Amino acid sequence: MGSLVFDIASHLVRDPDFLVRGARWLIALGVLGALAAALVGFLDLFAIPPGTRAFRVGLVHMTLNLLVTAAYAANFRWRDAGHRPDAGVGGGMLALNAVSLAALGVSGYLGGKLAYRYGVRVADESTQAEGFVATHRPPDPTG
């Protein structure tokens, strides 16, 4: 998200160099973080029983994340390959950043569905049930 904000802002200031460089490094940090998260994600995916709805959602989530990570890595390489940071971010790089962020949003939605709807790798069922037990009784309105 920050890299897209920096990309847009690079067209609004007179000296965009710091914004272009900042976006590039935010992308690099994001790619490294995504690679680390992918390691844990693979372990989570293998804990889901194959053939289930949650497993299919997990596969789509993983595929989108890998595609987004590849797109951001390509965007970083594109920026690193002779782009002049004093000229602002090019339209193609900006578009790739925006499309990648949109795909990441869809993947995030699916990840939330895995955790909050299917309870994937959140907690066992008895622990989850404890979270819905009332800690106090509301007053009886009938007296």
**Biggest sheet layout:** none
Number of strands: 0
Which structural class fits the helix and strand makeup? mainly alpha
Percent of sequence in beta strands: under 5%
Give the fraction of residues assigned to helices: 55-70%
Spatial extent as radius of gyration: 21 Å
Backbone shape: elongated
> Which spans of ≥5 residues are poorly predicted at pLDDT below 50?
none
Helix count, per DSSP?
A: 5
Question: What's a concise summary of this model?
Answer:
The protein is an all-alpha fold and about 140 residues long.
Give an overview of the whole structure:
The protein is built from 5 helices and no strands. The protein is mainly α and 143 residues long. Helix 1 packs antiparallel against helix 2 (17-46). It has helices at residues 2-9, 17-46, 53-80, 91-117, 125-130. It starts with a helix and ends in a 13-residue tail after the last helix. Helices cover 69% and strands 0% of the residues.
Helix and strand layout, with pairings?
Elements: H1 2-9, H2 17-46, H3 53-80, H4 91-117, H5 125-130
Characteristics:
69% helix; elongated; 5 helices; 143 residues; mainly alpha
